[in-house]
Amino acid sequence: MIDNNLPTVVIFGRTNVGKSTLFNCLLESKQALTADIDGTTRDANWNTLEWQGINFNLVDTGGIMEEKFLLGADKKSKADDIDLKVQLRAKNLLNLADIIVFLTDARAGILPGDKKLALALKKIISKKIPIILSANKADNPRLRRDAIEFNRLGLDEPLAISATNGSGTGDLLDKIVKKLPKKEKERKRPKKTLAAFLSEEETKKETINVAILGKPNVGKSSLVNALCGSERMIISAKAHTTREPQNIRLEHKDKIINFIDTAGISRKGQQTAKSTSGKNTLEKFSIKKSLDTIKNASVVLLMIDINKKLSHQESRLVEAIVERQNSLILVANKWDLIKIRDQKHYKQEIYAHLPFITWAPIHFISALNGSKVDKLYDFIAKAQAGRNTEINPNALDKFLKKLIKKHTPVKKKGTKRPHIYEFKQVDSAPPVFSVRIGAKDTISDAYLNFMSNRLRKKFGFYATPIKIYVERNKQIHGQHEESVKTQNES
Description:
The chain is α/β, with parallel strands linked by helices and 490 residues long. It has helices at residues 19-27, 68-71, 82-94, 112-124, 141-146, 169-179, 194-203, 220-228, 267-274, 281-293, 312-323, 343-353, 375-387, 393-406, 445-459; strands at residues 8-12, 45-51, 54-60, 99-105, 131-136, 159-160, 206-214, 246-252, 255-261, 299-305, 327-333, 362-364, 420-427, 432-437, 467-476, 479-489. It is built from 15 helices and 16 strands. The strands form 3 sheets. The chain has a 6-stranded mixed beta sheet, with helices on both faces. A 6-stranded mixed beta sheet has the order 8-9-7-10-11-12, sandwiched between helices. Strands 13-14-15-16 form a 4-stranded mixed beta sheet. It is elongated, with a radius of gyration of 28 Å.
């Protein structure tokens, strides 16, 4: 959370100097994604921090690659270049800071990039804004002594720290608190508040909530690590290593993908979760939370181990997903362990076990080595677009006429064939339709499934269940009254 009434401290520096690691260390959490890969932090991370009874906002920025991004946008860069956007966002956050922590790498020493960024910082930041110079990764006495060389940047007396083991971070917090504005009137007041800027940044991008579901040890946390490019989640062969749903926000093509990694769900655990007298209380609540995450997700990645036969448990999980109208992508993990990789054969086996979700795509991956994992982003975006599809009434009317011409509506019982008076879309995300028939008519589930399949073929609805309600006309004093009844989901 961000409080506009609190001063703001921004962590700044070139890529891969440990800004996110320091952010996590100071907050004593794992909020920020960390990895030994340049540019891991795409979005800003922020939270409030208390030290010595004083509260302030702490912001972690994406790493600056070149000083030209601070001094002005690179003319050769495209407007939609993700790296350019990250750099400009970091620059905007600097202008909202009350204190800047300029982080460097004690192991690497002073690099040309550090010198250029220090000069650029002096040009764009007011002299009234304190800059605290800190040399990170000073994990031993020699590196702490050598950190003195950063004096040549002409910013401040360098403070040697190690965000990994926490040494020196207490001194850093002491220094931050000492330099914070003591009174509200002493604070630099930007035209735009930090909360407004961050809110504006978020609202520019579509957010897709994605739950990762599956049995224990199927590879859910390994998938999250592969998606993030880092060992963010704790992985072990012991069932239920992940006890709590974990949220990981990543940016992909101007969309925020909010991945929710959940505890594994076992058949025994499902039964325990339903029982009020279950012995394994921790497992019971862990599974309940996992199932609850489906309510907050629009897309579900159901992971299966392709080396094992599907069980009744997967069928129950799929039923829960379809019941909640989530878009569904089946992720067949451990594909690297299969000797004869015949996707067509394995798809037929999966759909034979789960015939009611043949509309759900199956993607074969290896979470362990990252094979085909990146393609999941496109699957997710396509699924989100599918569930948001809205069909023009005129297009639906033409669709219905062609449908009836090809295949006359079939009754569910009785002797009279149903007459369809109207077919319309009543909602999207997820898609819901209604078909209105005569007061005494019935329509078969098979025909409603036929309608759903034709809707998919004509309009898409990729990876998304379609719900169709049946409405009947009721004759009351010469007027038609509509009654609604749930009839079909597919």
